Amino acid sequence: MDSMAPDCHETRRYRRVHALIRQYGISRCLSRFTHDAYRRWGLLKRRFPVWKWADRPLSSWLRRGIPADPARFRSWHPQHGGRLFFPAGEPPKLPDQWAAGAVAEADALRQGRFRYFSALERELGFPAPDWFVNPFTAQRAEADRHWCDQTDFESNRGDIKYIWEPSRFCWAYALARAYARDGRDLHADTFWTLFESWMAANPPQCGPNWMCGQEIAIRLMACIFAAHTFWNSPATTDERIAAFVVFVAGSAERIAGNINYARIQMGNHAVSEAAGIWTVGVLFPELAAAKRLRRIGQYVPEDEVRRYNWEDGSYVQHSTNYQRLMLHNYAWCLRLARLNQSAFPTWMEDRILRSAQFLYQLQDPITGRLPNYGPNDGALVLPLNDCDYLDYRPVIELTHAVLDRERLYETGSWTEDVVWLCGEDTLGRPVAPTPRESRDFTTGGYYTLRSKNTWAMIRCHSYHNRPNQADLLHLDLWWQGINVLRDSGSFSYFDPQTEWNQYFLSTAAHNTIRIGGVEQMIKGPRFQWFSLARSKVTRHEIDGEVEIWEGEHYGYRRLTSRAIHRRSLIRLGNEAWLIVDDVLGNGEEEVELFWQLADVDYILQGNRVTLNTPVGILATTVWATGSGWEQRIFRGIDTDKRRAGWVSHYYGQRDPAPTLLLKNRISLPVRLVTLVNLGTVPEESVANLDARIQWRLPDGKPGWQIGLAEIGPGVTPIQAIERSDAKCVSVF
């Protein structure tokens, strides 16, 4: 039982309904209710009857006057269809050092091995893979059930994403890249063999691979890209082209028929689906539905950007990976628009550019990585390079290229995307990297503090739409390319047997404080959250080599203690960080401070943890008011009583990594102070948490002295900052 304020059942139910309406709005809630009712009553199933590919040949999809004979149609289409990124059958020439990974993946496919979420590999078979098995659990989806009779969450099938992943056809990009690198027709034949196997196993509207419009759109765009690349290959026969266009038309019909459901979800589903049908409308004007598809595909992305791509560049889904997925879709559409005498509004292009610049400002300059923040479902819908999945340089550079901006990076493997979509001439543009600076992204609630060799991101947001994880005041800290204080990731969205997903979205899997043994917000079913937390930033200042940020959140005001978590973060040049956590309130509460550490060798001695990183020593020292604190490090713990010390960088994969925990049941208010020294271990320190903290460095080098105020509401914790040699650096 948590220390919740007394509340009757009816009041709690009202508040939860109110929270859902706050997140989605009345109109979306009503639309979702109507959609679910239609599905329950069988009306949606009636709208999407099962049919066989042979029942609706090419001629049934074309406008009058368009030749339906496969040979004549193949000659007609390149002259009258829309333009993709390069001439049909003529992919760009790639340097020898690019796409080596694509050749290896293509060879693996022919041995029946498929990649999952850019990291894992499992065998499904070739030339006829098993499209309905989860090879990690041996569970199966039912191939002969209408998609309306299936749901995303079925315990006997497990996580649906393992079924969907090979049917996204992202492996088709690897085959296209391998073909561009070495010109072997074997890659084209591999694509068509797998494509025909998939069509034979997945008649329209039947089976799990027709459930989600976004999955269909991702598959559709990948197949269009691959077929365009292989257009001149002997493996691309007239009959295969005809079957391919039927597949394109049938997929677009399914997406367009239910795209309003995607729009209810407020996120990348609608963007992906609109990109898919807009692509069909532009590239296949011979289809009878082309004008309608193009109209829907133009309106929906504009409206989605207006609503969900916020002014400061952040995105509605509170996830760096989902923001990348969104940018990939928009980069594809914006480039297609320019090639086909179409256009999206200038204001929309500006919002997309801001989204890319937002990611750039949250990027580590050495590795190209971003904080592993928010839901990370393994999506990489435009895998056109050999970079690691965690590298965001490709999407940022591509977005800038599509919008005719200067390049941000020198040429590398992350530039391959630009060559595919914009051509080799784009590489001639000047490289003019924008400085990464301390920034306030106030709409989205992201704040960065930066110096030359170290930087941090901290989250402080008042939620008005659906949150994803209980992570307010989470701190991500980087030093010379090492994510020394990290986010634990996502791992899985549905894990009915072990419920690992509940751990990864919890407060305990982030660098913040948990109070009363409960989450910062009340978790609802599936992706829902109740009691949306509010927060406030009270300070962000820079004075010379010192930078200070302060904020607080009110997620625990629902407890009887009326607790508030207030965090102060101080950057002290390039050498140290100080974090002051005040927990305000009344009465006694369990207070837990979590630090998710980099997975390197460590030593815990007293109140200090020393990490031996590849770039040097890092020392983390923690003090707290009161007595009776338990301090422990957990790494890879999975017992009935506790899960702790895990990280997931790739969907479906979890690895042990140390977590430092400081825990006590104590009377509020309470203060915890964490000092992170970069590259050195302080020789001596003095800590009076109601007055000052002072330390010196080895070899007589000066440290710092921080003046602290007594704990209390409305009181700024940080009063003065000085060099410990008494030279005053900054006084706030």
Characterise this structure.
Among the domains are: 9-38, no CATH class; 312-436, no CATH class; 445-730, Beta-galactosidase, Chain A, domain 5 (Distorted Sandwich), CATH 2.70.98.70. The strands form nine sheets. It has an eight-stranded antiparallel β-sheet with strand order 13-14-15-16-27-20-19-18, with no helix packed on it. Helix 5 (100-110) packs across helix 7 (171-182). The chain is globular and about 85 Å long. The chain is built from 18 helices and 32 strands. The protein has 732 residues and is α+β, with helices and mostly antiparallel strands.
Search tags:
732 residues, alpha+beta, Beta-galactosidase, Chain A, domain 5, eight-stranded antiparallel beta sheet, five-stranded antiparallel beta sheet, 32 strands, 31% helix, globular
Helix and strand topology:
Blueprint: H1 9-24, H2 26-40, H3 43-47, H4 70-80, H5 100-110, E1 113-116, E2 120-123, E3 153-154, E4 158-159, H6 161-167, H7 171-182, H8 185-201, H9 213-229, H10 238-256, H11 259-264, H12 268-283, H13 290-308, H14 320-339, H15 346-361, H16 393-402, H17 416-422, E5 439-441, E6 446-450, E7 454-459, E8 475-479, E9 482-485, H18 500-504, E10 513-515, E11 522-523, E12 529-530, E13 535-543, E14 546-553, E15 564-572, E16 576-584, E17 588-596, E18 601-605, E19 608-613, E20 616-624, E21 630-635, E22 637-638, E23 643-644, E24 646-650, E25 653-656, E26 658-667, E27 670-678, E28 684-688, E29 692-696, E30 704-708, E31 718-723, E32 728-730
Antiparallel strand pairs: 1-2, 3-4, 5-6, 6-7, 7-8, 8-9, 10-17, 11-12, 13-14, 14-15, 15-16, 16-27, 17-26, 18-19, 19-20, 20-27, 21-26, 22-23, 24-25, 28-29, 29-30, 30-31, 31-32
Helix pairs in contact: 1-2, 4-10, 5-7, 7-8, 7-9, 9-10, 9-12, 10-12, 12-13, 12-14, 14-15, 14-16, 15-16, 16-17
